Amino acid sequence: VDTDRRWVYAFEDAPADARALLGGKGAGLAAMTAAGLPVPPGFTITTEACVAYQDAGHHVPDGLWDQTETALAEVEAAAGRRFGDADDPLLLSVRSGAAVSMPGMMDTVLNLGLNDGTAAALARQTGDERFAYDAYRRFVAMFGEIVMGVEADRFERIVQRAKGQTEGGQDTDLSVDQLKEIVAQSKRVIAGQTRQHFPDDPREQLRQAVAAVFDSWDNDRAVHYRRVHNIPDDIGTGVTVQAMVFGNKGWDSGTGVAFTRDPSTGAKGLYGEYLLNAQGEDVVAGIRTPKPIAEMAGDLPETFDQFQALADQLEQTYGDVQDIEFTIEQGTLWLLQTRTAKRSGAAAVRIAVEMVGEGVIDERTAVGRVDPAALEALLHPAVNDDAEVELLAEGLPASPGAAQGRVAFTSDDAEARAAEGEPVVLVRQQTSPEDFHGMVAAVAVVTAEGGMTSHAAVVARGMGTPCVAGASSLRLDAAQGRLEAGGHTVLDGDWVTVDGATGRVLLGRVPTKDPELGDDFRTLMSWADDVRRLGVRANADTGEDAAKAREFGAEGIGLCRTEHMFFGDERLQPMREMILAEDAGAREAALRKLLPLQRRDFDALLRAMDGLPVTVRLLDPPLHEFLPDLLELTGRIAETKLALKQATTLEEMDRLLDESAASRALLRQVEKLHEENPMLGLRGCRLGMLYPEITQMQVRALFEAAADCVEDGIGVQPEVMIPLVSAAAEIETQAALVRETADAVLAERGVALDYLVGTMIELPRAALRAGDIARTAEFFSFGTNDLTQTTFGLSRDDAGRFLSAYVERGVLPADPFQTLDVEGVGELVRLGTDRGRAERPDLKVGVCGEHGGDPASVAFFHGVGLDYVSCSPFRVPVARLAAARATL
Ligand code: ADP
Ligand code: MG
Ligand code: MG
């Protein structure tokens, strides 16, 4: 090992911007020291030392203790006290801090350096025995817990017992003798629990505390936190060792935490809490209730003014809102930490825009300051923060927004009651395409099973309906119209409130507040639009969704799923006739009924988009999705059979016999269409290949609607998209059919307009053969949902069971249905784009599907050079911002 390596940096001679080397806390303290701010002297042991310690099997690297001694001597000189001194001892805090904030790591040890001798010295020095022995007993407990691993409860019990013997029963009522006794008992507990003595030697205390910080890097909490937040395991933590200052030395002392602006609203001005005559952990421990920071202006006016000025200075220096920890020792202000403040989405937008106004940052920086993911919540109603809530169950925050309604257990029920004007929350074990009408009718959806990409989640997000998925503690009994969870019983028709942003299902009607898309939001989005290159479109199937999408700034429709147009009673019937048709003639008759319905939908969509491009995907799902469920049918047949036995009149028997025959015929059809693996079966363009009439009907409907628009002076840019292509011959055949049909309609109507014919790339073979396909296709749209399924060979309806375990164990870095698997699926996107453009240089390439609204995926799509992404309307602003940030 190279002994010359530098492991330790004093605050005053640390390099600038040393976050990676010293961790966030150490780097912040060094920067504040360099800026001349009042920081107690100290030094930081590098993150590299932590890594070296780990690599060496938990041995500190050579030279570390020597360098620590040297740095400690400097701290002693600056503080005018010596560590372990018998007259005027220096006490230290030992603090952890990685380059990324990691709440899972070691807690801070305060008052390090105390033993019987130094405690007595501290008492003499300060003339305050209570203070000294209170610090001592706190230190022994903290050290025992954090460094030696004894349960905190054991020390707490000793204190509780002692307090019980006093009159007032408060911490402050403990006598000096009692405090001394608590120290002695705590040490005995440590010895009993660990078979090791509490180290009286201050230097031994320091060495053990530093090693404990290094070890905490690998504790379960920290490892878990890194997994969840995608933080690498090999960056290590820094250890900061600092002279203690005391906020508990009387009423001119205190400690607190403050933000330079309100982290939930963004309003300018100090925001935070403090306590007089207290040490750090008292604020957090909730033993005493802290006061709002504004009151400090009355308590300690001079210190408050000084703090205000320092806070302003820190905000200016860092160019961002700061979260500052401070302590006042007998009127002297000390800063103990500063970091960039976490903030709500609303605050982030307001702060970014106001700081541009104040000249602190420029517009590009402002765009980079707002997390796109936080934006989505702003676009939906939210549960009022002040409201009292009672939790019924918790699941995944599958679709943001909050809504209250009365519970319905079936989609039919939800639809019927919503039609009466009742707000309904649909609660299901899980949803399937057959629940679509219930989901449309509901104000919110809850499922007991399923993940972030379950049917319920995807459909709800698409519609902007709040959804909590996978609330596994729910015990549903739909037949009895009741559910149980968390010790509560909720009956059909009872009120619940769904908070899709946090994944909570709450009892009763909890007040919600509507989103406010203020001027700040619009300003920020306009800056984002100036910066981004990637286009942003929306997935929308109705005029209403399209209008919403435009309001959110969509530049077109990237995916209209035409199958959604066939749900609902009026439409399902002719759709079933079409599917069940025995021959082409019967099929065409059914399609003729569907044509006007489709035309009406396309008309609404084209008008809402008013000249912007609209990509219409031809029918995609397997046909059986439109037919009744096998089980349901057999059930119905059994019921009819039973009714037949009990029938009393001939008429009734006749009717039942007819019904039975019809059900049996339907059953035979459904069985004939049954597929073992429908997602890999007769669907997508395979339908159009077998039944060209379907393609013809859809294209005719689209172009008749387009012609109507043109006649009304409305511009249109239709783009016909052929799904699930894997062979060039498929796109060749289908594209020819589309062009032939479209041109025929346009000729009939005497209307000229430009349109495109393209395809979805959602099978690995299509990506590989993109060159052949681009000979025919004028645009590609990567259907990354299906492409992820087929690349991984992983069904997204079933993957919920094991994907989360995979992510937790680090087998996969993230759920590939939420964040694009850049290495695998991303490779196919890159390759498909390149091969397609090599064949057709002006090929337009986009993405539709969930990933189009995921910030990390959007950044990747920008990097690969796609033309646009398409996502659900509510995610359009998220994608616009993410696309802008990808260019920074
Ligand atoms: P965290 O990372 O959990 O915020 P810190 O290392 O910031 O932990 O320490 C927590 C608290 O301990 C601080 O907010 C402060 O109140 C107290 N503290 C830490 N170092 C010192 C010190 N040198 N003097 C006085 N109090 C300290
Ligand atoms: Mg802190
Ligand atoms: Mg698909």
From TrEMBL:
Example GO molecular function: metal ion binding
All residue ranges annotated as the PEP-utilising enzyme C-terminal domain in the record: 519-886
Keyword check for Cytoplasm: no
Every PEP-utilising enzyme mobile domain range: 422-503
Cofactor(s) recorded in Swiss-Prot or TrEMBL: Mg(2+)
Residues the record lists as binding substrate: R561, R617, E762, G783, T784, N785, D786
Swiss-Prot/TrEMBL catalytic activity: pyruvate + phosphate + ATP = phosphoenolpyruvate + AMP + diphosphate + H(+)
Top-level enzyme category: transferase
Residue intervals passing through the bilayer: none
Residue stretches making up the Pyruvate phosphate dikinase AMP/ATP-binding domain: 21-55, 67-291, 305-355
Keywords, in A-Z order: ATP-binding, Kinase, Magnesium, Metal-binding, Nucleotide-binding, Pyruvate, Transferase
Entry annotation: catalytic residues: H455, C848
InterPro entries, alphabetized: ATP_grasp_subdomain_1, PEP-util_enz_mobile_dom, PEP_util_AS, PEP_util_C, PEP_util_CS, Phosphohistidine_dom_sf, PPDK_AMP/ATP-bd, Pyruvate_phosphate_dikinase
The keyword Calcium belongs to this UniProt entry's keyword annotation: no
Taxonomy, superkingdom: Bacteria
Residue numbers binding Mg(2+): E762, D786
The protein's Enzyme Commission number: 2.7.9.1
Its job: Catalyzes the reversible phosphorylation of pyruvate and phosphate.
Family of this protein: Belongs to the PEP-utilizing enzyme family.
Family annotation (NCBIfam families): PRK05878.1, pyru_phos_dikin
Protein name (Swiss-Prot/TrEMBL): Pyruvate, phosphate dikinase
Origin species: Rubrivirga marina
